[in-house]
Write a structure and sequence with these properties.
Protein name: Protein HGH1 homolog
Number of helices: 20
CATH class: Mainly Alpha
Order of helices and strands: HHHHHHHHHHHHHHHHHHHH
CATH topology: Leucine-rich Repeat Variant
Family: Belongs to the HGH1 family.
Radius of gyration: 23 Å
Domain Protein HGH1 N-terminal: 94-277
Shape: elongated
Helix content: 40-55%
Structural class: mainly alpha
Strand content: under 5%
Largest sheet: none
Number of domains: 1
Domain Protein HGH1 C-terminal: 283-336
Oligomer: single chain
CATH architecture: Alpha Horseshoe
Length: 354
């Protein structure tokens, strides 16, 4: 005899939408407390939940929330992420400007991006809605959704912040890193330039995901000249501003800094998330891999900013990252060596739960 809870799980596939709504609504909490109830009959309940993302918006909301929580389980994550047809439906719904559950779809996609096989999205194409003004490449569509979501101009129901975590995980793969530094034909923009502006933004999720994406792309050493070129990506101001507080520097130090850092307001605050600060410092260290990168950072007085960050952020990870960078910047080029940082940012090795 099935238990009452098992019977309730069975009702998520009921032909009556009211019964589906009650069942999914009541099962949300169990998706975190007792996820095993969804793993019966070779994950049949999960299969039913995937169908429900196209149901009435309220039912789809509950189904998506359950799926987001269930994909904390590796076996369920792979079952969901490996379903190419489901991925196509999710991506199509995500790009719909009237989709009420777009943020939840973005959160589920962020979890699916933990599966390495999702790197195939780098070459995936789908028709873009005319209102998005994007091209057929899915990655370009996701970037354009992310940009337009920042001010709510595309979908009034969504900010698309969680796409930042999608980018962070996908950028661990070389083919996706290459995408981020390649100018796109349809708009003539390097994708990294679309996200760098969000290193300072009110959304913690957006800032954190963007910081990790930039760091991961920075493992592509041949792209460093473009990273540092003022006429291409010009990444340094977007890494240094978030880690800069309201400290005062002497005139000589200030005049040697980048123009963006010379006239900061007295109430300027360093990013409050210490993990983000650490990620930016580690990215700067990656960019010292080449002699050109080291020389540039010395010439624009990066050292005083790192010195003050080390002094004012009393967090072990941040202080150690600052010390590694200072060792590189202050080293004699004759015996220079950059300490290796593990390939790929682990800060976003998280599964979203709601």
């Amino acid at each position: 005899m099935p238990t009452e809870l098992e019977e309730l799980v069975g009702f998520i596939a009921h032909p009556n939408p009211q019964i589906r709504k009650v069942a999914t609504e009541n099962l949300v909490s169990y998706s975190t407390d007792q996820p095993s109830i969804f793993k019966t009959q070779e994950l049949l309940p999960v299969k039913h939940l995937k169908f429900l993302i196209r149901d009435h918006p309220e039912i789809a909301e509950h189904a998506l929330t359950i799926l987001i929580n269930l994909t904390a389980d590796q076996s369920i994550l792979e079952y969901v992420a490996m379903d190419d047809r489901f991925l196509g439906i999710l991506l199509g719904n995500l790009a719909d400007p009237a989709e009420q559950n777009a943020n939840l779809l973005a959160m589920l996609l962020a979890n699916m991006a933990k599966w390495d096989g999702l790197k195939s999205i780098a070459t995936r194409k789908q028709d873009a809605p005319d209102s998005l003004k994007s091209d057929g490449l899915v990655l370009n569509q996701l970037l354009d959704l992310f940009v337009k979501g920042s001010d709510g101009t595309y979908n009034k129901h969504a900010d698309f912040d969680y796409l930042a975590y999608v980018f962070a995980d996908l950028s661990k793969h070389p083919e996706v890193r290459q995408f981020f530094v390649t100018k796109q034909e349809y708009d003539g923009v390097v994708p990294l330039n679309k996200i760098k502006v969000f290193t300072e933004h009110k959304s913690d999720v957006r800032r954190k995901g963007v910081a990790s994406t930039i760091k991961n792309v920075a493992f592509d050493v041949p792209a460093h000249p473009a990273f540092l070129d003022e006429d291409q990506v010009n990444i340094l101001p977007y890494l240094l501003l978030p880690i800069t507080g309201n400290e005062e520097y002497d005139d000589e130090e200030t005049m040697g800094m980048l123009p963006d850092l010379q006239l900061l307001p007295p109430d300027k605050q360093r990013d409050p998330d210490h993990n983000i600060v650490q990620t930016h410092v580690e990215t700067l260290t990656l960019l010292t891999t080449t002699r050109e990168g080291r020389d540039l950072m010395r010439s624009v007085n990066v050292y005083p900013i790192i010195r003050e960050t080390h002094l004012h952020v009393n967090v072990e990870g941040v202080r150690e990252a600052c010390e590694r960078l200072v060792q590189v910047l202050m080293a004699d080029e004759a015996d220079h060596g950059v300490e290796e940082i593990v390939d790929g940012d682990n800060e976003d090795e998280r599964i979203v739960e709601v």
